[in-house]
Amino acid sequence: MNEEHRKRTEAVEVEQPENVEIIDPVIATGSIEPFVIMSDDLDDYLSRIDKRTAVIDKLTEIALKKTNKHCWNDMGAFPYLNIAGGERVARIFMVRIEGMTSEKRWAEDENGRYYMYSFRAKFSLPGMLDSTWEVGTCSQRDQFFGKRKIPKLDEDGKQMRNEDKSVMLEEIILPMTDIDEGTIMKAAWTNCKIRGIRSLVGLQGVTWEELERVAGIKRADIKSIQFAAKKKGGQSYPASDSQKRLIHARCANGKIDEKRLCERMEIKSVDEMLSTHINEALRVIEEWTAQDAQATSAEGIISKEQAEYLREGMHGSISEEQFVKTFGKRPEEISSKQFEPAKRWINDRLDSAKK
Prior knowledge:
Elements: H1 3-9, H2 42-65, E1 72-74, E2 79-81, H3 83-93, E3 96-109, E4 112-124, E5 131-139, E6 147-151, E7 169-173, H4 181-201, H5 208-215, E8 223-224, H6 241-254, H7 258-265, H8 278-299, H9 304-314, H10 320-327, H11 336-354
Parallel strand pairs: 1-8
Antiparallel strand pairs: 1-2, 3-4, 4-5, 6-7
């Protein structure tokens, strides 16, 4: 073997990701591990490709025949092998999964801060005949777990209708407190598994025609998964009754004063909220609730005696409404750190009233 050929065939070094062991640099590309050609003979090279192609085609055919209509989802242009189908195929082919790592990351968009999970793992057939690395992700903004559809309203507060008379819907982004983080994590791992299995046994890019011809599964028999279309335009409408009830409930659960929230939103009351206010209001409530929880955890709520002291100072001169507007909570609910500022504020108000 001459020097030039040796340089062409030797492995290329790949930077090793943090906390992940790379067994073979070629595997890190995410594609099927190639065979090694030790000859300059082009005919030999093509012959090996033909044999390998026949093996891969046979793997794909067997995998397709072992699935049924419940193993697939209709997501548009192509059939999608779901996790039930993927695990069915994996057991038949004795797929091995190893080297799994996970990571939680934070990002931010126009609706605020959110998290995402990612998993990475190596998938291989028995005897290391073939192997591949795959990554699966899922975020708090996921279409299924992080959003909800609600009726869209016109300027008069009435539900808008589509051409087929069905109710027109719009999406809202759920606050972090309404999302099960464990579900997001499991979805990321499921995504990683199904991607690895599909890639390994050749079920990436299967067509509807191929699925029916090889497995006898028709598109009409498969469950369809619909995604919401992205909203266009920026026109605002009054918030729906269900949206207003959601805000009332979030404020009550988080012990957030609605008047303080409305001042932050620069509106008079929750009843005057527009549909475009909802996500921002939910974000503010979530932020304040988290801040209050952190303060309570670190400092604790004032004692009963301290609360009674404040109440006695306020009696007949300062209303609870004025107190809440200033400190965001009733006297019994403020943190110990807020006690001295609240006491000084009451005394200042009383002194001003005497003058």
